[in-house]
């Protein structure tokens, strides 16, 4: 097979490669939680607390239970984070935490606002009768 116009053929191949290789901007995916949202968070209105570390998310309630989930995947798109986790309860039960990091020290989760606090304040919140729902 003989090509008559190699320049035209080259342009056609390049343009096809650009169409196939080009992809729209997509969310970044991580295996651990980014530093920007790690820390201790409390929500007085939700009577709930979150502790987010690189590989774990702990969801806790004052004077009640706390559940530690292991992070498998984190997707980031702008200021929105989707954290895929699992907890072992007779088998792997998967959960996805959808967080919105809307300020330097605040995030939204489950319709409530969470404030970033120190470890001392986090512990004090969880051991206080003042925030017990009931």
Comma- or semicolon-separated keywords:
134 residues; alpha+beta; eight-stranded antiparallel beta barrel; 9 strands; 18% helix; globular
Compile the SSE list and pairings:
Blueprint: H1 6-21, E1 28-30, E2 39-43, E3 48-52, E4 56-60, E5 66-77, E6 80-88, E7 92-103, E8 106-109, E9 112-117, H2 119-126
Antiparallel strand pairs: 1-5, 2-3, 2-9, 3-4, 4-5, 5-6, 6-7, 7-8, 8-9
Q: What's the SSE pattern? A: HEEEEEEEEEH
**Extended strand count:** 9
Label the structural class: alpha+beta
User: Which segments are poorly predicted (pLDDT under 50) over 5 or more consecutive residues?
Assistant: 18-24
Q: State which percent range the strand residues make up.
A: over 45%
Query: What's the end-to-end separation, in Å?
Result: 82 Å
Report the oligomer: single chain
- Give average pLDDT, whole number: 84
Shape: globular
Largest sheet: 8 strands, antiparallel, barrel
Explain the overall architecture.
- It is built from two helices and nine strands.
- The N and C termini lie far apart (82 Å).
- By secondary structure, the protein is an alpha+beta fold.
- The chain has helices at 6-21, 119-126; strands at residues 28-30, 39-43, 48-52, 56-60, 66-77, 80-88, 92-103, 106-109, 112-117.
- The protein has an eight-stranded antiparallel beta barrel.
- Strand 8 and strand 9 (112-117) form a beta hairpin.
């Amino acid at each position: 097979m003989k090509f008559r116009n190699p320049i035209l053929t080259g342009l056609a191949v390049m343009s096809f490669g650009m169409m196939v290789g080009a992809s729209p901007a997509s969310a970044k995916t991580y295996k651990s939680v980014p530093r920007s949202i790690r820390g201790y968070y409390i929500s007085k209105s939700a009577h709930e607390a979150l502790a987010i570390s690189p590989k774990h998310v702990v969801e806790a309630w004052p004077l009640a239970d706390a559940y530690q989930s292991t992070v498998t995947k984190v997707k980031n798109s702008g200021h929105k984070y989707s954290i895929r986790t699992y907890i072992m309860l007779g088998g792997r039960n998967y959960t996805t935490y959808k967080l919105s990091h809307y300020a330097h020290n605040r995030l939204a989760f489950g319709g409530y606002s969470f404030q970033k606090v120190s470890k001392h304040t986090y512990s004090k919140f969880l051991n206080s009768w003042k925030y017990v729902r009931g």
